[in-house]
Specification:
Blueprint lengths: L11 H13 L5 H8 L3 H9 L1 H9 L15 H16 L6 H14 L9 H10 L13
């Protein structure tokens, strides 16, 4: 009887948890450690190789339930928007969805991306990708 394994993507939180459990293990081979953790050695090897990126993403408040990191339509414009939004929040100013969408389009134009359009769908996905706190958007009509 053959035993087949199904592929299962790990969430960011699961990856961080496995890395923490690995750190708590005694000094042993990756194969033995993977067996104790209940994962394949190749999975453990990939986790260890990308440890810095995983931990940085987790600490930077990214969505811990995500399984893959995806970029939006215009990653540079989105990074600029996130930085701008963070500075606006520090100033204790309030902005709403239409302002954020317009600012995203402005950043895209400045970067030479004339086809970018900040639609409602894009904005919804951007909030999810950036793990925006829903409480800051309460009472707003997006």
């Amino acid at each position: 009887m053959s035993h087949t394994h199904t592929r299962r993507d790990l969430t960011l939180a699961e990856k961080v948890g496995l890395l923490r459990k690995y750190n708590a293990l005694e000094n042993m081979s990756q194969t033995a450690a993977a067996g104790k953790l209940g994962i394949a050695q190749s999975v453990l090897s990939k986790l260890l190789k990308s440890r810095y990126e995983i931990e940085t993403s987790f600490l930077s408040n990214e969505t811990s339930s995500r399984k893959r990191k995806r970029d939006g339509k215009d990653p540079k414009a989105e990074r600029s928007l996130k930085k701008w939004f963070a500075s606006v929040q520090e100033s204790d100013c309030r902005v709403d969805g239409p302002i954020l969408k317009q600012k995203a389009e402005d950043f895209a134009k400045k970067l030479g991306h004339t086809t970018f359009s900040a639609t409602d769908g894009w904005f919804s996905r951007w909030k999810k990708r950036e793990n925006m706190l829903w409480s800051m958007f309460e009472g707003r009509s997006w």
